[in-house]
Structure formats: C-alpha cells, structure tokens
C-alpha cells in the first residue's frame, strides 16, 4: 500500500534526525540548511572512515524510479554521486531534483529540527517567496520574478523617460530662445560673405590701378633718362679741363708740402741743439756752485769735531764715577735660602690638597650611597617597578623591550602601550581577584604590546621581531592593533540593568589603564561584558542567566565564582552555566616587600649619614690647616718680591753703565772719521777744468745752430714760392667751376627730376608686384563658391565698375554693419548641436516608450495572474481544532513588487485580537503551532513530492499537540496529498491514525540487549495490536 504519512518516532539521541540529514545531504543540498555541522565529513559516523546515503525516489508516470547514492569520507570534504548505479556529478543530481520539484531548501516543505525557530524569523516577503515555491500554480514564482524585474525596469524606465522628456523640452526651449540670435548670425554670415567678396575684389582693383600708374611712370622715366644723357655729353670738355687743373694743383701742392716738411726738420734740429746748450749751461752753473760750497763744508766739519770732542769728554767723566750697588751674588744667596725654607710649606700644602681631595671623594661616595638607598626604598614602594623586576626574572626579553621602548619613544608616532601586567592596575583591591580571573594567563604574561596606529605596529614588529636593531637579537613578541572604527560587541545588559540584578559593575569599570589598552581589553578579553558582584545574596541568578543568554552568552562573577553562560546546540537550545572558582590574584598585585631587605637598606643609609658627620669634622680641621699654610705662603711671597726688586735695581745700574760705554765708543769712532777728512787743491783744479770743457762745448753748439737757421730760411722761401703758384692755380679752378656750375645747373635739374621719377617708377613696380601676389593669395584663400562668384564678375566686367577707393568705402560700410550685428560665434553651433540632440533623444524616447508599453503589458498580465491565483487561495485556517485559536493570511500588495508579502495573523485565546506572527511576540509553542498549521494549509496545493517536519511538537502543550496531530492525519492522508515525513521524540496516547500512515520506530542506542530475541520491536507491536484489536495503522 502506498503511504502518505511516514511518522518516525524514537527517544532523543537515537538518530531519528539523522534521517532528515540523510535526505537533505543525499539529494545534494549543503549542510548549512540543517543548522548543524558546516562540513560534510562531520556527518560520517564517529569511528568510521567512510559512509554513504542511498535514496530511492518515485519516478514520473511511465518512468522508472530514481536511485541516488552519495558516498562520504571522514577525511575529505568532498563526495561522489551515482544515479541508478551510474557515476554522476552534483550538477546532474541537482538538475534531477529540479525536474522532480524537490524543495529541501524551502522551509515551507522541509523543516529540520534546528531550523524550526527560523520559520518565525522569516520576513513576510521571504515567506511569500517560499510559499509560492512550495504550493499553488508552478508559475507563481516566475510571475512574481517577472513583476519584480519588470517593475524595477519599469520604474527605472519611467524615471529615464521623464528625464529625457524634460531634457527634450529644456533643449527645445533653449533653441527657441536662440532662434533670433541664429537669424542675426545668418545675417552676419551674409555680411561676412559680402565683405570677403569686396576684400577679394579690392586687391585686384588696387593691382590694376597700380599697374596703370607703373606704366605711366615707366614712360616718363625713359624720356628723362635721354635728356640727362644729352646734357652730360654737352658739358664733358669743360669737365675734362677741370680735371687737368686739379692734376696741376696736386703737383704744386706736393712740392710746397715737401719744402715745408724740410723746414720743419731744420727747426727740430735747431730745438735739439738749443736743448743741448741749455743742459751744458746747467752743468756749468752746478760746477760753479760746488766751487763756492767747498768753503762752507770745511767750516761745518770743524764745528762737528768740536761737539763730538765735548761729548766724549762728558761720557768719560760719567764712566770714571764709581758704581755703588749691592752684591748680586748675596741677593741670589738670600733668594736660595728663602726658597729652601719654603719647600716644607709647599710639601704641607700638597699633602693638604691630597687629603681634601680624598675627603671630597669619600663624601661624594657616601652621598651617592644615601641617594641610591633612598631611590631603592622608593622603588620598593613603587608597584609598577616591582612588577617590572618580577617580569625581568620570569621574562628578561620582555622586560628588556619595555626598557628599550621607554628610552626610544621618539621613534614612534604614538605611545606603545606596555603589557597589561605593567600598564593595568586595579585601584580597589577587593576586585583584583575577579578582574584577574577575566584574563587567561597568556593575555597577562605574554609579550602583548598594544600599538595605537598601523605604522607603529609595523615598525615595532620590524625592529624587535624581524631585525636585531632593538635588542641586538630577534625576539618573538605579541603585538596588537585594531582600527578604532572596528565593531565591539555590546555588553549583554545595560549598566542600570546590571545594577538592578545586584552587580557592582563590569570588570572594565574597576581597572585603570591607557585608553588604547581599554580597547584591547574590550576586544580580546571582553572585560566590558563580564559583570562582577562581590556579595552573593544580591544577585538574581535566574534573571542574570536569562539576560546573558539572550545576548548570545557571556561570563559573570559572583564573589569567588566565575559563571560562563552558553546556549545548548541541541533542541530548544536552553541556556547552560559552567562555573569555576576564582583564584587569588598573582599577576595584577605587586610583589610583597621583604622587611629584612628594607631594614638593611635603612641601616646602610644611617651608617652613610654618620660617615657624612665624620667627613664634616675632618673638613673643618683641614680648613684650619689650609688657612695657616695660606698665611705662610703670603709671608714668603712678600719676602721674595722684596729680594727680586733689589736684584732688578742692581741689574738696571749695570745696564746703564754698559749703555754709556757703548755710546762712548760710537762717538769716538765718528770723531776719528771727521778728523780723517781733508780738502785738497786737486779737487778745486778738477772743478775748474770741467767748467772750461763745458764752455767750449756750448760754443760749438752755437755755431751749429747758426748754420741750421740759414738752411731753414732758404727752405721757407722756396715753400712760399710754391704756395703762391698753388694759389694762382686755385683761382683759375674757381673761375672754371663757376662757369661749370652755371652749365651744370640745367643738367642737375634734369638729373634730379630723373631720380624722382625713377623712384616713383621703382615703387610703382614693387607695389604692383606686391598687389598681384596679394590678389593671388587672397584668391587662393577664399572658398570655391566665392572664387566662382569672383570669376563670374570678372567675366561680366562688374568687378571693374568701382574704383579701389569706392571699394574701400563700401568695405568700411559693410564692416560697420557687421559690428552692429554682434553675435556669439558659438550660437549656431549650440543651436545645431541641440537640434541634432533633440532628434536623437526623440528617437530614443520613441523606442523607450514602445519598450515601456511592452513592459506595462507584461506587468499587467503577470499581475492579473498573480493576484487571481493568490486571492483565490483560502485566507483562513480551519477553526475545527477546538482549542480556541484562529489564524488569517493576508496578501499585502505594494508598488514595489519585491515588497509583496504574506502576513500571518494569529490568536490563541478567544479574547485576543489577531496579531502578526513574530519571532519574539509569541511563545515557542505558539510559534510551533502556527508553523505546522501554516504548512498543513498548503498540503492540498503543495507542489513538492514530499515534505518533512522534525520535532515540531516539542514546544506545544498536550491539547494543541493532540489537535494538531489529528488534523495533520486528516489533512495528509488523502489520495491527492504528497508524501509527508513527521519526526517526533514522543507521542501522546490515543491519537488518531490512518491506513495511509506508516509509523517507523528507530530502535537504536548503546543500551540495546545483545540477545536479538529480547526486545524485538515487531513482536512487541504485534502483541500490542492483538491486545487492542485495532488495525487503524500499519507499523514496521
């Protein structure tokens, strides 16, 4: 007999839900739809290396059944498939499931145990989508998809159409505003064409007129050239005579210049002789002066000899006086004895300085010992320092890194936070045990340094872990950095709610640390989620577990007990609590100070202070000795200075006598030199002889000078004669030039006129050529149309009707008109571009409007079908359960077809109003009841070949469970119903059954007897049926 309902029953833990898992996995659905393990190999039986799932599916009418086998392995996340014994791929299996319309992934047709609660969590839109897939017309989903996609496209298209229509209107309005400017632009273009034509004709007319002027100038230039040549031939004989005169004038002038030059040479020679005579005259005067000065020098020398003799006598008298000074040897002896007596004083002074130096060193050493002891006492009182010392004993590398960081803060952008055991303190020691319990030992003792920016995080790892730059070796440490904007899980309850439950606060509230360390404590240690209460009787445990489990789990501490709240992974996932004792804190409390060590340090400080007192007494004694030595030193200095002054006086007297002796020798030497000088008669005779020689030389020079004067006079006379002849020839030349000037006046006038005419001719020739080039260039520049117009005017002769001046006047008039028609050069470009753009947009708009009409038609057809199909479905669940509950389905259309939804309205008491089914409004049993009733309501129109519900009755009371079971049997045990799997761990007695039901009891577990004859399920069932005499159900 073909069964409609397969009821699978057995206690929890026997593996009945494994059947649901096998169906889902065997038909190639992922493990995620089951809500259990996420990996495929987790479903292989523990202890086995592999396994398989084999499912036989009823084929369509006229086709054989389909056998699907999936092989699993505990060591691999992959699997293999077989279809009817042939190897296949996962895609082929999926295609077969789609052909058979099997919907294991739809909660409306396949509801595993761990997904029961998710049915109420589905949104109204998601519920509609899943309902359409599970029941009703098979085209509902495609119609809805058509509405969604076409609706979105239609909305976008409508927006685009409105935008393009507005754009076309805007462009049209803008072009309408430009039409007047366009008309003015066209008028301006016509004026520009006329100006271009006149500008083209003008250079041609100017060239024609310039050519005419050039022809006239050329004729006149040729006539004047002939006249000039005739006049030049007529005056040529007189010009030739003028040239002969000019030749004779040049010859006479050269002769006159030669005589003048000869006279100049004579005059220069005369000047030379004159200069020589003057020089000899000067020598004669000097010799005469020397003869007269000889007598004066003899008198002066005699006077100097007398002065030196007197000075020598005075020096000899001074030297003859006896020198009365002390014996310098005696003074030196006194100085030696004084220095010898001072040696003892110097030795005493040296010994004194050594004693004072040792005393200062001992005093400094003693004070350093006192400072070191006081510093050590302060460090004993410094908890942070004691923590660092303890860390150095247990982890020297970590302590070395802390010391290095404190000395190298400048290398980082922001401060690197030291590990929690150093940088974190608990001011209130009552909470230190609870706070330390929130950490694991790794978080407290590991080298976890907190960086405040990514650059510092990378730099610290590079300097310490990747290189030896920091410590001279590579050290493995733990560094931490997270961006500030990262998500931090909120506390399980507000602080006010925690206080109301009896908690003192969260662990994060009882610690002091840098802000960056707080972020680490929140993210990694969850101190902001761990509530603490020191008094046990104040905490409401039940409410606390409910609040913390509602947030997904967490920890809380009451007195000396740590509570760890989690949710079960099975069934209804009730909250669970695991406890452990809170140990006394060891890391966050500072090490205890050894009293003996403190007493030893204090004793050392007292001894050092006693030493300072002794040092002070010794310093006073050495001070008295130093003052006595200073007095002796002063007496020695005074005596030494007196002896030194006496010795200097003796040396000064001796030096004065040496100076007098040296001066005497010098004056005696000078006196001897003057006495040796005597004037002789030979010197006077030599001077007279020189004077006679100079006089004779002057006489010879006078005779030579007279001869030069006579020759110069002769040359001057001849030069005068040539000058007179030159003047006569010049007079004749002037008379000839006057005559030529009269005859050349006519020639020069004709020549000047010729030059003027020739200049006009040359300029006219250049101008005509220039204008011809301009005309040709202008003709090449204009467009073809303008060239054709110009050629037509040339052929008709209209181009030559106006002169160049008339053309210039016309051109000026046209340009003035053009200036009055000032327009934007880009107007016509904008106008034409917008015109083309309007045409293009209009074509696109027509295409889009046609497309929009098609979309609107398809939306209308799909909407009519969707609404007709959906609203013909029953909107009310049967009220025949007899348990006082009711429900209603509402289809909620929306302009956005993606927001179409099914709303489930339920009530479970006659006095209540219908309310929407939500995940947190109804109880678990009410949600389960609503879920199964909704699934039952779709049974008659279900399209899936089978459905499955696992432990849907777990949260129901007996009254609802019985009514639901009986209604389920009544609904599903019909000839036109699909196969239904109902999995439950328990059943109530006296339930209704049907012949189309099959009850499968899973007889599995570790307590089964080894003897197969005992506890045979089939035997027990047969006995039971025989006793009851009932055949209402079939059992296997």
From TrEMBL:
It comes from Multifurca ochricompacta. GO terms for molecular function: single-stranded DNA binding. Residues 4-987 form the RecF/RecN/SMC N-terminal domain. Keywords: Coiled coil. Transmembrane segments: none annotated. The keyword Coiled coil applies. It comes from the Eukaryota. One of its GO terms (cellular component) is nucleus. This is Structural maintenance of chromosomes protein 5. InterPro entries: P-loop_NTPase, RecF/RecN/SMC_N. The keyword Coiled coil applies. GO terms for biological process: double-strand break repair via homologous recombination. Belongs to the SMC family. SMC5 subfamily.
């Amino acid at each position: 007999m073909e069964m409609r309902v397969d009821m699978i029953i057995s206690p929890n833990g026997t593996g009945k839900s494994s059947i649901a898992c096998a169906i889902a996995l065997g038909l190639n659905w992922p493990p995620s739809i089951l809500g259990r393990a996420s990996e495929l190999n987790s479903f292989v039986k523990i202890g086995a290396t592999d396994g398989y799932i084999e499912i036989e599916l009823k084929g369509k009418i006229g086709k054989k059944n389909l056998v699907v086998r999936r092989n699993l392995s505990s060591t691999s996340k992959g699997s293999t498939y077989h279809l009817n014994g042939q190897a296949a791929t996962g895609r082929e299996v999926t295609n077969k499931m789609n052909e058979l319309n099997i919907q294991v992934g739809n909660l409306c047709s396949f509801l595993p145990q761990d997904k029961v609660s998710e049915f109420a969590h589905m949104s109204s839109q998601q519920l509609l989508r899943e309902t359409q897939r599970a029941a009703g017309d098979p085209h509902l989903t495609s119609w809805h998809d058509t509405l969604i996609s076409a609706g979105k496209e239609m909305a976008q298209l409508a927006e685009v159409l409105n935008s393009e229509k507005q754009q076309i209107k805007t462009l049209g309005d803008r072009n309408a505003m430009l039409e007047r400017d366009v008309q003015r632009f066209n008028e301006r273009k016509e004026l520009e064409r006329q100006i271009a034509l006149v500008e083209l004709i003008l250079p041609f007319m100017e060239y024609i007129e310039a050519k005419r002027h050039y022809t006239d100038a050329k004729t006149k230039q040729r006539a004047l050239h002939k006249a000039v040549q005739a006049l030049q031939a007529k005056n040529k004989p007189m010009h030739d005579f003028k040239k002969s005169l000019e030749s004779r004038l040049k010859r006479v002038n050269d002769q006159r210049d030669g005589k003048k030059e000869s006279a100049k040479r004579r005059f220069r020679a005369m000047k030379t002789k004159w200069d020589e005579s003057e020089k000899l005259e000067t020598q004669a005067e000097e010799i005469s002066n020397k003869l007269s000065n000889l007598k004066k020098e003899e008198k002066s020398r005699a006077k100097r000899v007398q002065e030196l003799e007197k000075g020598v006598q005075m020096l000899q008298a001074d030297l003859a006086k006896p020198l009365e000074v002390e014996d310098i040897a005696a003074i030196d002896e006194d100085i030696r004895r004084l220095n010898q007596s001072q040696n003892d004083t110097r030795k005493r002074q040296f010994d004194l300085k050594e004693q004072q130096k040792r005393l200062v060193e001992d005093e400094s050493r003693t004070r350093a010992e006192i400072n070191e002891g006081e510093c050590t006492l302060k460090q004993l009182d410094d908890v942070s320092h004691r923590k660092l010392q303890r860390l150095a004993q247990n982890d020297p590398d970590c302590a070395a890194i802390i010391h290095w960081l404190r000395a190298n803060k400048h290398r980082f952008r922001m401060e690197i936070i030291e590990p929690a055991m150093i940088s974190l303190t608990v001011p209130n020691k009552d909470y230190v045990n609870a706070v330390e319990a929130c950490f694991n030992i790794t978080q407290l003792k590991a080298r976890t340094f907190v960086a405040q920016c990514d650059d510092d995080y990378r730099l610290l790892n590079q300097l310490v872990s990747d290189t030896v730059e920091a410590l001279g070796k590579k050290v493995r440490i733990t560094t931490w950095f997270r961006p500030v904007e990262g998500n931090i899980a909120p506390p399980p309850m507000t602080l006010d709610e925690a206080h109301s439950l009896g908690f003192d606060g969260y662990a994060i509230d009882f610690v002091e640390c840098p802000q960056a360390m707080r972020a680490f404590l929140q993210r990694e240690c969850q101190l902001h989620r761990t509530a603490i209460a020191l008094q046990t009787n104040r905490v409401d445990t039940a409410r606390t577990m409910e609040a913390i489990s509602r947030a997904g789990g967490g920890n809380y501490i009451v007195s000396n007990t740590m509570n760890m709240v989690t949710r079960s992974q099975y069934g209804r996932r009730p909250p669970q609590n695991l406890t452990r004792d809170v140990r006394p804190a060891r890391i966050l409390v500072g090490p205890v100070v050894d009293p003996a060590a403190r007493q030893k340090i204090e004793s050392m400080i007292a001894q050092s202070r006693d030493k300072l007192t002794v040092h002070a007494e010794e310093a006073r004694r050495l001070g008295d000795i130093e003052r006595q030595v200073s007095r002796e030193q002063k007496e020695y200095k005074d005596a030494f200075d007196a002896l030194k002054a006496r010795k200097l006086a003796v040396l000064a007297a001796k030096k004065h006598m040496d100076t007098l002796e040296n001066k005497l020798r010098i004056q005696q030497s000078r006196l001897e030199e003057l006495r040796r000088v005597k004037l002789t008669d030979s010197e006077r005779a030599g001077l007279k002889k020189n004077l006679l020689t100079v006089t004779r030389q002057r006489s010879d020079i006078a005779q030579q000078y007279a001869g030069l004067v006579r020759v110069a006079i002769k040359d001057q006379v001849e030069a005068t004669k040539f000058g007179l002849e030159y003047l006569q020839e010049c007079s004749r030349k002037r008379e000839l030039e006057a005559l030529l000037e009269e005859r050349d006046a006519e020639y020069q006038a004709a020549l000047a006129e010729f030059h003027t005419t020739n200049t006009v001719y040359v300029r006219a020739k250049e101008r005509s050529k220039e204008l011809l080039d301009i005309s040709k260039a202008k003709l090449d520049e204009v467009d073809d149309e303008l060239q054709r117009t110009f050629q037509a005017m040339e052929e008709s002769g209209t181009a030559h009707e106006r002169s160049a001046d008339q053309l210039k006047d016309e051109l000026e008039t046209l340009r003035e008109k053009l200036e009055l028609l000032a327009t934007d050069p880009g107007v016509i470009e904008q106008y034409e571009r917008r015109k083309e753009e309007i045409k293009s947009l209009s074509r696109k708009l027509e295409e889009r409007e046609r497309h929009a009409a098609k979309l609107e038609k398809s939306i209308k057809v799909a909407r009519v079908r969707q609404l007709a199909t959906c609203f013909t479905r029953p909107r009310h669940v049967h009220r025949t359960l007899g348990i006082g509950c009711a429900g209603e389905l509402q289809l909620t259309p929306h302009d956005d077809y993606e927001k179409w939804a099914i709303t489930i309205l339920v009530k479970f008491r006659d006095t209540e109003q219908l309310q929407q089914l939500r995940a947190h409004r109804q109880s678990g049993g009410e949600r389960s009841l609503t879920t199964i009733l909704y699934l039952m309501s779709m049974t008659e129109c279900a399209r899936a070949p089978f459905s499955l519900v696992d432990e849907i009755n777990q949260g129901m009371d007996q009254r609802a469970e019985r009514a639901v079971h009986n209604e389920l049997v009544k609904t599903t045990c019909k000839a036109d119903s699909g196969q239904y799997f109902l999995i439950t761990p328990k059943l109530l007695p006296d339930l209704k059954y049907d012949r189309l039901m099959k009850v499968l009891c899973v007889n599995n577990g570790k307590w089964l007897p080894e003897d197969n004859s005992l506890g045979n399920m089939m035997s027990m069932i047969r006995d039971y049926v025989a006793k009851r005499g009932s055949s209402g159900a079939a059992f296997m």
